[in-house]
Amino acid sequence: xxxxxxxxxxxxxxxxxxxxxxxxxxxxxxxxxxxxxxxxxxxxxxxxxxxxxxxxxxxxxxxxxxxxxxxxxxxxxxxxxxxxxxxxxxxxxxxxxxxxxxxxxxxxxxxxxxxxxxxxxxxxxxxxxxxxxxxxxxxxxxxx
Length: 144
Known about the structure:
A hairpin with a 4-residue loop joins strand 4 and strand 5. By secondary structure, the chain is of the alpha+beta class.
């Protein structure tokens, strides 16, 4: 009645092609394992690349502070005096850090403070500083 290639519904099993459920589940499991391994590395990379913005802006603002000192024999606590932004505190272009200036006598310290997700994900480098003498802290946060 039925040939050995037909099932009860009359379909020819020899010509059917596709994936079995087990093959599909193995593929999903492999993708899941790869994602578990890759995601932490990717997250760390994003945090480090966002952190690079702070030292770049700190050095730029320190140079502007030094130029101001040459011109007026004084440093400023108001970042907008340096021609950057409109407020005393400067927000970096990608909005990962706020930079403020502290002045004592003839010295300054610029401090970048992480905000938002950067502050949460980069606990070791929530604050990064540079002084008028070029001292950079914490050292590990300066990428060297």
